[in-house]
UniProtKB/TrEMBL annotation:
Name under which the protein is recorded: Importin alpha
Gene3D superfamilies to which the protein is assigned, alphabetical: Leucine-rich Repeat Variant
InterPro entries: ARM-like, ARM-type_fold
Transmembrane regions listed in the UniProt entry: none
Domain of life: Eukaryota
Record carries keyword Secreted: no
Record key words, sorted: Protein transport, Transport
Family assignment from sequence similarity: Belongs to the importin alpha family.
Organism in which the protein naturally occurs: Entamoeba nuttalli
Amino acid sequence: MSFRSSDLQLQQQCQQRHSEIGQLRAQKRSQIMNQKRRKIDFEPRKDGLIPIEEMQNLCYEVINGNTNCLMRLLETLSNDPVPYQIIKSTGTIKTIIKNLKSDNNDIIFYSLSILINYSAFSPENSNEICQQGISLYFEYLINANDERIVMHLLWLMANIASDGVVPSEIIINSGIIQYFPSVLQRFPTLRTRSQIMWLFCSLVRRSENKQIDSNFIQVVIQFAMSCFEYSTNDNDELISDACWTLQYIALIPEQFKYVLTKQVIEKMLYCCRSSEIKIAVPSIRFFGNLLTYDDEIAKQLITQLLPILIYLNDSIDPSILKELYYAISNITACKDLSLLQLILDSKLLYNIPILVIQRDVSKMAREEMEWTLSNFCFGATNQMLQTLLTNCPAVIAALFSICTEQSLPSQLLIITLKSIRNVCRFCDDNKVNINDVAEEFQFETVLEDIIINEPNKRIKELATNLLENYFREPEMML
């Protein structure tokens, strides 16, 4: 039995792939966060916009100190951009922020409500609020005895943190986090915990793109773990946010080690089995993220994780399947052959070929399955390939099918072509005829189309190599 050496480019390809998936993940979660944070406490106007001139006059009244107009200004805000443009052009935000020092709690509350909606409308608005010195008011507001004010401040900070690296750094560096224990003592409710957890989730969501203090990360992890113990009948959102937060931390190269603890791992394994999709999805992704780093982490987790993966394989939910095969694909990308053998023995690969060929699952879930199968076939030994092809002959057809897809990511096409090359070598050595399958998928034509139309030089080279060595008739090569 011969062992094929690993391609040195595989690690770079996988890293690029994980980066691309990370960007998609951030975009999707950003959409979720924007939807959630825009659930405001009041009903926006439904009878159309007020005239622009009236809106301008309203802003100037606020600027001139007429706080009675704050509620009226708040009522004009909706999803239409015009009111926000007028607020920006008149410089009203500066005055609204100054109102946060008022002795009147209602004025502070309405001012915070306006800022929440203003920040939720665009990242540029959040940056403007930061530039106007909002952080100077954090300490004063967080120590307020009015629960409305404290909750709205936490909400506003979560909005700001969602909109960029600089705003989140301003919040972290303000030192406001030290006051959270006293906030929980004053307002020991589910809502308080949820607002703080949501803020932490927003802060770490952007953290893979910047340096972040390890002490802060450990505070966030400790708080997230405490939320799992907060027992109520309606705390699913709180638990979901805790899971999302931990999976974002698992993405941070300098900080992921802090979630590799027995307590965190056991809790996230438990949450993977949750019947609530909003809890299970980030929990599975948590492990998928950790598996992107190196083989040692995969070896550390595999014994506990594999039974969970097998259990989840019976799911029909596309979100669960996507995260499941994202995790498995990161295991099959490992160089350690013992990890590939465990995946093979688990039979998790056996369902993939038919699902890929028939395209019976969502595109995102199918793509993760394709990564899983291609990674495995590229890294597998001859003995592993023999076992897989014996129990699942449709593997070859599935690999051919992947190459026929439109708009396939370049890195996925590269690893699939390499896996086909590896399978072809095995079939040649063992006298396995794959001509019928190749003809069914018109694979010679597929390779020719790739060579003609694909701009990527590496893909052209791989397709040419396959065509000339395995799929072109000898007389055609003369």
